[in-house]
Design brief:
Helix 1 packs antiparallel against helix 2, helix 2 crosses helix 6 and helix 3 packs antiparallel against helix 6. This protein is mainly alpha-helical. The chain has a domain of 82 residues. It is built from 7 helices and no strands. The termini are far apart. It is 68% helix and 0% strand.
């Protein structure tokens, strides 16, 4: 999360594309890892699907306006969590980042790979008399 704050707030002089979508990608990756942390036994594809749905819900929530919600969006926490402007391009950036995080996760955590989930456990060796 600290990297995302520095990415968006510090004067890194990044090209606009990297500044805008890099921050969105970092947010989406953080969402993926938070869900993975909450559901340690879930397969990577399940975590990715939930993260994509969450990211979509947050992006679609930007279409809803109320004085309280808009006031929260003007705070630092509101900007970091909810953002303020709806953008279909952000959804694409989120989903690409979540896809890449899930691939990394599947290779990093063998238990999250679909084939490892269904492979039989090795039988322990038996002692000879």
């Amino acid at each position: 999360m600290a990297i995302g704050i520095v990415w968006r707030m510090a004067p890194l002089h990044l090209p606009f594309f990297l500044w805008k979508y890099g921050g969105s990608a970092l947010w989406a990756i953080a969402v993926y890892w938070l869900i993975a942390l909450l559901l340690p036994a879930a397969r990577a594809i399940t975590v990715a699907a939930l993260a994509c749905l969450f990211a979509l819900a947050v992006e679609l929530s930007r279409l809803i306006h109320s004085p309280t919600l808009d006031a929260f969006r003007h705070t630092l926490a509101g900007k970091l969590i909810l953002g303020s402007i709806f953008s279909p391009r952000n959804i694409l950036a989120y989903w690409i980042a979540i896809f890449l995080a899930s691939i990394f996760d599947a290779f990093r955590s063998p238990g999250r790979r679909p084939e490892a989930r269904y492979s039989p456990l090795p039988t322990p060796p038996t002692a000879l008399p």
